[in-house]
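Encode chain A's predicted structure.
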Amino acid sequence: MSLHRGPTLPYRVVAGVTPCPSGWLVQGAKMAGSTFAPESPRVYETFLDILDEHPAFEIIVINAPIGYLDTPQMGARTCDREVRALVGRRGSTVHNAPSRAVLDNLVEVKEAGLDAVTATMLPHYREVAKEMSPFRQRLIYEGHPELSFFQLNKDSSMQRSKKIEAGRDERLEVLESHFPAMDKVLDDEISDVSEKHQFDALALLWTARRVFGHAAKRVPYEPEWDSEGLRMEIVY
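Encoded structure for chain A:
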C-alpha cells in the first residue's frame, strides 16, 4: 500500500472506529485549527479499506486490541486490568484481549477460556493484527468506548448499560454536551448499525480528537510492549 497522501489539504481527518455486523463503523471528523466537524458515519467492509481511504486518516482510535500477550497462560494485559478498574461499575464491558496464540489458531478458543464477546470478535481482531506494526502505532491507537465515555463524563463512569434505553439516553446526553449538531450526525441511519454502535464510534472519535491535540492519556502510564514490538495500551 502506498503511503503517499497526495496534495496537502487545509484540514486533517480523525476517526473513531468500532466493529459492527457488516464490517467496521467509522465516524470521522475534519480538523482545521479549532474547527471540529463530524462527518456522516460510514461502514467499511474491511479494516484494510479504512487504511486505504483517501484522504488518509490522520488519527484512528479503534475498539480492538493492539498488542497481545503470547499465550493464554500469561493472563490479562495490564491495560485491560487497569481500564477495568478505572471505569468501575462498567468494568465488566472491558474484556481481556485474546492471546496471540489464539489469533494464530495455535490454541483453541475453548482451551483459552475466552468469553463469548471476545470469541465473536476474533475475525475483526485478526484483521487489525494482520495490518499492525510499530510504525502504524503513530496513526492507530487502541481505545474502548466505556473509557472514552468515562472521560467525556468528567472522569465518571456511565451508570447504565447501553443495551437499555436509559443507558442510551445517558450516553446521548453526554455526547450532546460535547458534539455540535449531534442530531444531524445521528440522523444518518445505516443499515445493520445500531444506535449503540454510533454512540461508541462517536465516543472513540472524541478520543481521536484528544490524541490529535496531544491531550489524550495512556493506560498504563508506563508503556508495555508485546513480542512484536507493539505497545499494549488503551488511550482516552
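The chain has one domain: 9-236.
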